[in-house]
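ok so I'm stuck.
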Amino acid sequence: MLMRPRCIPCLLTRVLYETELVNPALAPKTLKEATRIISERYDGNQNSAELATEVHRRVYEILGTDPYKEIKKRSNQVALSLLPKVESIVKNSEDKLYASALSSIIGNILDFGVQRVFEKPEDMIEGFDKIFKEGLAVNDLPKAKKFFENGKRVLYFTDNCGEIVFDKLLVREISRLGAKVTLVVKGGDILTDATIDDALALSFTEVADSIITTGSNAVGVSFKEMGRELANALKDYDIIVSKGMANYESFSDSGYKPILYLMRIKCDSIAEDTELKREISIAKLEVN
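replied:
not stuck anymore, here's the structure
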């Protein structure tokens, strides 16, 4: 997805947010550097995830630490506190694929430093029932199900901490249907995205056939920086499951298909690009 003009103030707002998490006094420097990079690079033809990666990497250099470290830890803790409830919902559902997919999207309602709606890990508790009752505004899961059967190869790209706790339920269900699932997590710290440490701590080896990384800490997926494991996996798969908006930004103009997008649409740019509304949950399959 190309970066739209409205994405720029959103990106700068996130830069300010993560700076204030570490040291508010550094805000003039981080904002100046972010603005410099945007002014030098932005001409309307950049992939939004690529430019965001460049900005956040420079901000992390200035901050000297991962600003989201504690938030990621809390997000997983809060999600784990909800897990028994969510497991019960999935277990008692007539459509376990639907229930586990929707539950996995709900962790994505958290949006630190941008929307200011669900911005604390604890907000997940308040928001879960509301979002679950809303259901999926786009539900292509019945059409996607055939890609999860008979030994099909699934590449499952995770998104955020907290959310990844519920991803385990969906990966378990996809595996139960007969698929071979490769979990793909970030190769390094960026924003609140899950890494190999999160996947191992949550025992994803119990439900996934293998776990690999994107090969870098790029926002979404950098196909220029991906490691050999991911490059090989992207040559031999039956379907990609893409969680969250950043992965959508990377994959939407990549040509990799079939792909199932699972996400909460939280911004006007994604809504415009998908030709859907904001504040809805979707399971959108693209085959051609």
